[in-house]
Structure formats: structure tokens, C-alpha cells
């Protein structure tokens, strides 16, 4: 995530990581501010207005899963940088990598249980344990290895979606129908409009900090493992693609502008129509729980992945051709501090929306929520560069690095002698 140990810094790679950490807030802002059912179902709290539907549609087609995918790809690229840096410095590449992943897993669990349930760090750490095995593969081999991971990541939820659809239609064999009907009823109770689950989350997150932590450590205690089982395969596939794109020099900003433009155009033109079709499908079913599950967890994955690559190409094109040196420097600084910015975002947003803070949970519509994104993006861009002008690392990057190496790392930069 941080790429901080790299002997060679790539400003374009840091800059796209800065865009990714900002973009992931655009994906997560609904989950910070509204009950989780509303993340995928704009009708979860009642009949949605046109602005709610339009914002949900935009998010589903262009943002949701794409920013997480971009973050995952960049994690794969950064992992190669850290491994190469350790080897170049004469340290054990395996020791450096696995130490980082163990500490990242602990950070992720602390993030989940103490700050916010939407953690991805634990997932990344467990996936990262496997990445080391692929470090020396060629671009072609990395892309080929990503295919079986994606097939499993798509096949498992797609098979469940198929069974749920048959249960809904009443076409399952009797021996399988009972279990699937129970699963279907639970899914409708969890994701349907104006359900008791929605009201329960409203009450929970407008409550005290202690009650929220008790809920996470109790009823939600096993969720990091469940989340891992749902997204491990897809995430490893994305990380392998990120490693391949790094080795191909795509993520280091070394392609010609025309090549970035071509990739962005092709990826968006292929991926956007099917994603728009899946959004319309969900709308026409009245945001049926089975339709939402199939569309978001299984059917969209190939197109989400393709659009993620398109986003990477488009961002690189804009960094290369449109961004001024000052803008690139601000984005790169935010990317070098992505670990800190990611966790600080969770602290800030939960403090704004949860009951132990400003208590705005459930009271802000989807479209106005982006104002909070803009404010947090501005904060990242404003504070990251001045911080890195004085210090070698972001505060949490420094802590992660110090723990991983089992010794305190130098933090403050020493002024050059005049």
C-alpha cells in the first residue's frame, strides 16, 4: 500500500495511489453514513428520490468495486517494490515481506473492531501472504495466473446466485429447496427496503462507542473471515494484474500517451454498457435482494476489473498530459501516505456520522455525501505534502515500518548543511 521502502520512487505510481485512496472514499462514503443495506440498495430506507437513484447508478457503473480494484492492483505493484528494495539492501526479501503482512493484518483487525467495519487491510494482508510466491513471474505468467483466481471469485457467488434465483422461482428440487428458501428469506430480511435490520443499524450507529465496539466484537466478530472468504480470490487476481501492469511499466507512467488513451477508451467502451445493463436490471426488479447480490458480487466482476484497468490508464494519461507539476506532487504525497490517509479517513468519517461524534448517520442523502468526500480529499492534498517535506514517512507508515523491522526508524528529515 505504501511502497515506502522502495529504493526508486515513481511519481506517477505514487500519484495514482493518491487518486485511489481518494477514490475509495467515494466508494465507501455511503457505508460510512447510511445503514449497510443502503450501500447496494437505494430503496433500503424507503422510496428513493431521483437524485438518490442517479447517484447510485453513477456509483455502481463507475466507482463501486473499481476504486477497491485500483487500490488492490496498486498494492500488488507496491509489494514488488518493497521486495526488490529489501533484496537490493541486502535484507531478507521474504522476511521483510512477511513481517509487513503480519503487522498489516493486525492493523486491519484493529481497524475493523475499533474504528470501522469496512476494513480491507486484513484482506490485503492475507492475500499478500500468497503474493510473494508470484514475485518472479513474467507479465504473461502473472496475467495467466490471475485467470483461475477470477474464475473461482466469480464462480462461487454466481453458483449461489443461481441457486437463490431458482429458489425464488420455485424450481429447485425439494431436497435443496428448504435451505435455499431460508437463505433467500434471510437475504430479503437483510437487504430489502425498510426492514427491521435497517432500523437496527440506525439505532446502533447513533449509539455509543462502547455499544458499537461490543457489536463488532460480538455479533460481527467473525466478519473479517467471512469477508476474506468472499473476496480473497478476486482480490488476489487484481493484485496479480497490478504486478503485471507494474512490470509492463504501465503503472510507472512510462507508456506513451496514445497507448494510455487507447487502453482507457477500449476498457470503458467494453465495460460500461454491461454495467449499466446490470444497474437497469436491479432497478427493474425493484432492487430485489437476489438481483442485487448477483449483480454486485458475481456478474459485474469481469467488467469491474476491465473498467479498473481503464481507470488506471485514464488516470495515468491525465497525470502525464494534464496535471501540472504542483498537482502531481500533491497527489504523489497523498499516495505516499495512503496508509495513513486511509485510516485517518475512517476515523474522521465515523466521528462525523456516528453517535459518539456529530451523529449525522442516516440524515444525509446520497448526493450531498460527496461534499464530505470533497472536504476529505482537500485535507489529504493539503496536509500530505507539507508533512513529507519535514518527515520521511507518514505517521502510520513510520509505525508500520518500525514494527516490521523491529526497530524505530528515523522519522524527521535532517536539514542539509548550508
UniProtKB/TrEMBL annotation:
<feature type="transmembrane region" description="Helical">
    <location>
        <begin position="263"/>
        <end position="283"/>
    </location>
</feature>
<feature type="transmembrane region" description="Helical">
    <location>
        <begin position="101"/>
        <end position="134"/>
    </location>
</feature>
<keyword id="KW-0472">Membrane</keyword>
<feature type="transmembrane region" description="Helical">
    <location>
        <begin position="289"/>
        <end position="319"/>
    </location>
</feature>
<feature type="transmembrane region" description="Helical">
    <location>
        <begin position="141"/>
        <end position="164"/>
    </location>
</feature>
<feature type="transmembrane region" description="Helical">
    <location>
        <begin position="70"/>
        <end position="89"/>
    </location>
</feature>
<keyword id="KW-0812">Transmembrane</keyword>
<dbReference type="InterPro" id="IPR007349">
    <property type="entry name" value="DUF418"/>
</dbReference>
<dbReference type="Pfam" id="PF04235">
    <property type="entry name" value="DUF418"/>
</dbReference>
<dbReference type="InterPro" id="IPR052529">
    <property type="entry name" value="Bact_Transport_Assoc"/>
</dbReference>
<feature type="domain" description="DUF418">
    <location>
        <begin position="245"/>
        <end position="406"/>
    </location>
</feature>
<feature type="transmembrane region" description="Helical">
    <location>
        <begin position="367"/>
        <end position="383"/>
    </location>
</feature>
<feature type="transmembrane region" description="Helical">
    <location>
        <begin position="339"/>
        <end position="361"/>
    </location>
</feature>
<keyword id="KW-1133">Transmembrane helix</keyword>
<feature type="transmembrane region" description="Helical">
    <location>
        <begin position="46"/>
        <end position="63"/>
    </location>
</feature>
<feature type="transmembrane region" description="Helical">
    <location>
        <begin position="225"/>
        <end position="243"/>
    </location>
</feature>
<feature type="transmembrane region" description="Helical">
    <location>
        <begin position="19"/>
        <end position="40"/>
    </location>
</feature>
<protein>
    <recommendedName>
        <fullName>DUF418 domain-containing protein</fullName>
    </recommendedName>
</protein>
Amino acid at each position: 500500500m505504501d511502497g515506502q521502502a522502495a529504493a526508486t520512487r515513481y511519481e506517477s505510481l505514487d500519484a495514482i495511489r493518491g487518486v485511489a485512496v481518494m477514490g475509495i472514499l467515494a466508494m465507501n462514503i455511503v457505508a460510512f453514513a447510511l445503514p449497510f443495506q443502503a450501500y447496494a440498495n437505494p430503496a433500503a430506507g424507503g422510496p428513493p428520490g431521483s437524485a438518490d437513484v442517479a447517484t447510485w447508478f453513477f456509483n455502481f457503473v463507475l466507482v463501486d468495486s473499481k476504486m477497491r480494484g485500483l487500490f488492490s492492483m496498486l498494492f500488488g505493484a507496491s509489494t514488488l517494490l518493497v521486495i526488490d528494495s529489501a533484496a537490493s539492501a541486502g535484507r531478507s526479501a521474504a522476511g521483510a515481506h512477511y513481517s509487513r503482512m503480519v503487522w498489516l493484518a493486525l492493523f486491519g483487525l484493529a481497524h475493523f473492531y475499533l474504528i470501522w467495519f469496512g476494513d480491507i487491510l486484513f484482506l490485503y494482508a492475507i492475500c499478500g501472504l500468497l503474493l510473494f510466491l508470484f514475485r518472479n513471474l513474467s507479465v504473461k505468467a502473472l496475467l495467466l495466473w490471475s485467470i483461475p483466481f477470477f474464475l473461482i471469485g466469480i464462480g462461487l457467488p454466481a453458483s449461489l446466485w443461481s441457486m437463490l434465483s431458482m429458489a425464488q422461482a420455485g424450481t429447485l428440487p425439494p431436497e435443496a429447496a428448504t435451505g435455499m428458501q431460508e437463505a433467500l428469506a434471510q437475504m430479503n430480511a437483510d437487504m430489502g427496503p425498510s426492514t427491521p435490520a435497517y432500523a437496527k443499524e440506525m439505532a446502533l450507529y447513533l449509539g455509543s462507542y462502547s455499544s458499537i465496539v461490543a457489536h463488532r466484537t460480538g455479533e460481527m466478530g467473525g466478519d473479517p473471515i467471512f469477508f476474506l472468504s468472499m473476496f480473497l480470490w478476486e482480490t488476489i487476481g487484481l493484485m496479480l494484474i497490478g504486478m503485471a501492469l507494474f512490470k509492463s511499466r504501465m503503472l510507472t507512467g512510462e507508456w506513451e500517451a496514445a497507448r494510455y488513451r487507447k487502453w482507457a477508451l477500449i476498457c470503458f467502451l467494453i465495460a460500461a454498457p454491461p454495467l449499466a445493463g446490470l444497474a437497469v436490471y436491479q432497478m427493474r426488479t425493484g432492487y430485489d435482494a437476489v438481483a442485487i447480490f448477483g449483480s454486485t458480487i458475481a456478474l459485474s466482476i469481469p467488467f469491474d476489473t476491465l473498467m479498473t484497468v481503464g481507470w488506471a490508464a485514464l488516470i495515468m494519461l491525465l497525470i502525464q498530459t494534464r496535471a501540472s507539476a504542483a498537482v502531481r506532487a500533491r497527489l504523489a504525497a497523498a499516495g505516499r501516505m495512503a496508509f495513513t490517509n486511509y485510516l485517518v479517513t475512517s476515523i474522521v468519517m465515523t466521528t462525523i456520522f456516528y453517535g459518539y461524534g456529530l451523529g449525522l448517520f442516516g440524515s444525509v442523502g446520497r448526493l450531498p455525501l460527496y461534499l464530505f468526500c470533497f472536504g476529505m480529499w482537500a485535507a489529504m492534498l493539503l496536509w500530505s505534502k507539507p508533512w513529507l517535506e519535514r518527515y520521511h514517512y507518514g505517521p502510520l507508515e513510520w509505525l508500520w515500518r518500525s514494527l516490521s523491522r523491529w526497530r524505530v526508524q528515523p522519522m524527521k528529515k535532517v536539514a542539509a548543511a548550508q
